[in-house]
Amino acid sequence: MTRYIKPRKGEHVLHNSVRWLTKHGMSLLGSRVLTVRGRKTGEPHSNPVNLLTFEGERYLVAPRGETQWVRNLRAAGEGQLRVGRRVERFKPVELADDDKPALLRAYLKRWKWEVGMFFDGVDAGASDEKLREIAPGYPVFRITA
Length: 145
Known about the structure:
Largest sheet: 6 strands, antiparallel, barrel
GO molecular function, one term: oxidoreductase activity
Pfam families: F420H2_quin_red (PF04075)
Protein name: Deazaflavin-dependent oxidoreductase, nitroreductase family
InterPro entries: F420H2_quin_Rdtase, Split_barrel_FMN-bd
């Protein structure tokens, strides 16, 4: 079963605001604008994301699950992250579920106030076993050059 949480009514206003601020150089706690080529149309699609730095590597976590940006990133095999005028092209490496617990914990420590509602009561204090149990519902990508 694929896990996906649709945006609630009105959330697009917040997403558009964060995207606009980040696109104009005002990153909010690590926010970036992710641009990925659409898998069906080939047109670029942009979404605000939280870029997690953990043990010297950078990651994108999809708290809503199998979103359109996740599906597009898998299909395209590349994307762009933007803050202001700085644009970075990257290739994603999707992590196996067993590699996710420490990253999900770090993500929740940093952004639980923003994304906690998508984790069904699981927080940064959860056991590795619990984080491994929920890992299949949360795609995680390592950013590579």
